[in-house]
């Protein structure tokens, strides 16, 4: 059976209703919240036992013995607040007791004080306290031989009690430190989990905003351009106006379908719960994109040179979105563009993308209305999205006016293994 100290009393086999209540967490928590009261109860029990032992020993029942007993027992009330001071006081009183040749059962208070020092103070102080008591054990065994079996038997018996008190206190202190470390670790992990959740939520919001912008901005730009063309052609060429409006309807339906898929993924926790998913657009859909822009009345030339590199689908989707956003910006911001050139140059180092138009930039005196990448808050969401997409693959995106009055977007996506 394991020995328990005064700070941690756990009955092995409760046989009464009171012992059952003692095991309840609420009662134990109440005791931990009132340690001084528990120490007072300990002092009362110990004092009753000490006074009882004095009553049965005729030679030790004088006022001198009672005074010594109270001086040894009562300071235990403050053992938790001042463990080292209480131990020094009791050790000093025990030395005076030894000098005056007084034998008292109250010397058991020294073991409780040692246990408290080991449980609440440093290990060094605990060992010093144990050494002091061990010296007292030797002196008391030589002078009193309290076990009645000689000096050696007394030293062995009392030294065992000292060791039990010391190791019980150290064990409790180690257990408390271990529990404190577990609580600190759990708190730190919870904080890190919350931080990771916030970062993941922020990244997801950014990704969603980028995807929504790519879907909505391009489609609306094409629709607006086609609608304007239909209005202009309504009187002179109704057939062309009708074709433009049919193209508006087709573009709107395609955008609506893509929006439904995107919102369906956001609403469903499980992607397999009947949500129709489609892969992100890649370079294989570039012809369809350019055809849509041409249908909006913007002449687009596509040039692809070099040997394509084994880019991942995500990297190809990034290239597609950069080209899509660049063409969308031409539709939205360029003034009367007559041609747009999309160049894709493959090399062993990766892919270079150039989207150049000859439209005059909005504004006069060379002041552009189209935001440049990296200029801070003035940059549009689309340009920021292009930079973020390219940055995922250690790529770069630059945008600015050309010497001939047009606009150029230049992007570099490194090949896998060269990043």
List keywords for this structure.
five-stranded mixed β-sheet; 419 residues; alpha+beta; 12 helices
Overall 3D shape: rod-shaped
Low-confidence segments: 1-6, 8-16, 269-275, 363-369, 371-379
What is the string of SSEs from the N terminus onward? HHHHHHHHHHEHEEHEE
Largest sheet: 5 strands, mixed
Radius of gyration: 43 Å
What is the assembly state of the chains in this entry?
single chain
Characterize the structure shown:
The chain is an alpha+beta fold. The protein is 61% helix and 9% strand. The protein has 12 helices and 5 strands. A 5-stranded mixed β-sheet has the order 1-2-3-5-4, with helices on one face. A hairpin with a 5-residue loop joins strand 4 and strand 5. It is rod-shaped.
Layout of secondary structure:
Layout: H1 17-22, H2 25-33, H3 35-55, H4 63-73, H5 83-99, H6 108-120, H7 123-143, H8 151-236, H9 238-267, H10 286-295, E1 300-305, H11 313-333, E2 340-347, E3 350-357, H12 381-391, E4 396-401, E5 407-414
Parallel strand pairs: 1-2
Antiparallel strand pairs: 2-3, 3-5, 4-5
């Amino acid at each position: 059976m394991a020995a328990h100290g005064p700070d941690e009393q756990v009955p092995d086999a409760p046989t009464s209703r009171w012992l059952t209540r003692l095991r309840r967490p609420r009662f134990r928590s109440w005791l931990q919240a009132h340690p001084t009261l528990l120490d007072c109860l300990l002092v009362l029990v110990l004092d009753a036992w000490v006074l009882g032992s004095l009553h049965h020993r005729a030679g030790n029942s004088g006022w001198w013995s009672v005074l010594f007993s109270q001086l040894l027992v009562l300071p235990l009330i403050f053992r938790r607040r001042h463990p080292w001071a209480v131990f020094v006081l009791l050790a000093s009183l025990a030395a005076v007791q030894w000098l005056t040749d007084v034998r008292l059962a109250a010397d058991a208070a020294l073991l409780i004080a040692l246990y408290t020092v080991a449980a609440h103070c440093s290990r060094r102080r605990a060992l010093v306290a144990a050494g002091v008591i061990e010296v007292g054990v030797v002196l008391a065994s030589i002078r009193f031989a309290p076990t009645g079996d000689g000096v050696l038997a007394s030293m062995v018996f009392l030294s065992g009690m000292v060791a039990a008190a010391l190791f019980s206190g150290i064990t409790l202190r180690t257990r408390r430190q271990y529990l404190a470390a577990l609580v600190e670790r759990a708190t730190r992990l919870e904080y890190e989990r919350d931080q990771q959740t916030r970062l993941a939520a922020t990244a997801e919001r950014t990704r969603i905003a980028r995807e929504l912008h790519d879907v909505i901005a391009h489609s609306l730009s094409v629709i607006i351009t086609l609608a304007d063309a239909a209005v202009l052609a309504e009187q002179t060429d109704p057939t062309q106006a009708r074709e433009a409006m049919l193209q508006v309807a087709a573009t709107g339906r395609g955008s609506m379908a893509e929006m439904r898929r995107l919102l369906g993924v956001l609403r469903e926790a499980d992607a397999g719960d009947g949500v129709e998913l489609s892969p992100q657009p890649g370079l294989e859909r570039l012809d369809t994109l350019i055809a849509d822009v041409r249908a909006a009345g913007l002449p687009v030339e596509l040039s692809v040179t070099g040997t394509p590199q084994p880019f991942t689908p995500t990297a190809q989707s990034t290239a597609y979105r950069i080209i899509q956003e660049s063409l969308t910006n031409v539709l939205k911001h360029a003034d009367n563009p007559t041609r747009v050139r999309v160049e894709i140059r493959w090399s062993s180092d990766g892919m270079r993308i150039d989207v150049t138009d000859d439209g005059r930039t909005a504004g006069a005196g060379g002041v552009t209305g189209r935001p440049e990448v990296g200029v801070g808050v003035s940059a549009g969401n689309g340009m920021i999205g292009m930079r973020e997409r390219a940055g995922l693959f250690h790529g770069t995106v630059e945008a600015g006016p050309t010497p001939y009055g047009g606009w150029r977007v230049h992007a570099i996506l490194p090949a896998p293994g060269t990043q």
